[in-house]
Amino acid sequence: MKATKETRVRMVALRQGQRNRNFRLGTRGRPQESRASILKAAVAEFAEHGIAGARTDTIARAAHVNKALLYYYFKDKDSLYEAVLDHVFGGLRDHVLPLLESNSSPRQKMLDYLGAYFDYIAANPQFPRVVQAEWMRSGAKSAPMQRVAKEYFRPIFRKVAEILRLGTASGEFRPVNPMDFLPSVAAVIVFYFSAAPVIKALTKVDPLSAQRIRERRAFVLDFISAALFR
Question: Is 204 left (phi over 0), alpha (psi -120 to 50) or beta?
Fold first, then answer.
């Protein structure tokens, strides 16, 4: 009798687990998990193939959802790509803006910003590849680029420009033009991750290993500090 009862309990648990898995993968239930899984798979697919070459059926399989569910959350591939852009740049904005708006000195704000910017890209090394090829192809007049620039880049640019002005006025910074400084910071941080496959082929060293990431982070902060701080 005891064994029969335990068997029934196991069978009920197995059936419940199967229902939970099916509920997640094949229905509109658990929308936050399904949407997050789709976005994660979409980042990888867009990074590898760009928006033109990306396939929604590949994204659906990687996200463990059916294609109908993908289109329930995102009406087409362009909508999914814009959601990926929001995911990438919304995360960056939310990561760095609180540091730029803190009560620290201009010097400390800049160091915190640079470190947080680097850490965000290091934690998401596919992100630069998601957008660079498409933006080079579509140009500055593309609607996604215009929207991203307005919603995500502009708030960061204004805060960094203000910190540069305050740091220069207080004598902490050398005078620099924000229009030169911001692209230079992005280049020093982002290009390393974009070029990681080439760096690995040239040096036979994994540029994304934990040790190399620590070394690169220290270099970035030292390099920019040497250029900016008095």
Answer: left
pLDDT digits (tens, 9 = 90+) for 7-63: 554 454 445 444 444 444 445 557 788 899 999 999 999 988 888 899 999 999 999
Single-letter amino acid code for the residue at 152:
Y
pTM (predicted TM-score): 0.82
Q: Read off the pLDDT of residues 142-168 as tens digits, 9 standing for 90 and up.
A: 777 788 889 999 999 999 999 999 999
Query: pLDDT by residue (tens digit) across 52-110?
Result: 899 999 999 999 999 999 999 999 999 999 999 999 999 999 999 999 999 999 999 99
Which residue, among 136, 114, 130, has the nearest Cα to 193 in the 3D structure?
130
Rounded Cα distance between 70 and 28, Å, is 10
What residue type is 124 in one-letter code?
Answer: N
Q: Which residues contact 21 (CB under 8 A, 6 or more apart)?
A: none
| 220 in Cβ contact with 188 (< 8 Å) | yes
Determine the Cα–Cα distance for residues 126 and 131; give it in Å rounded to an integer: 10
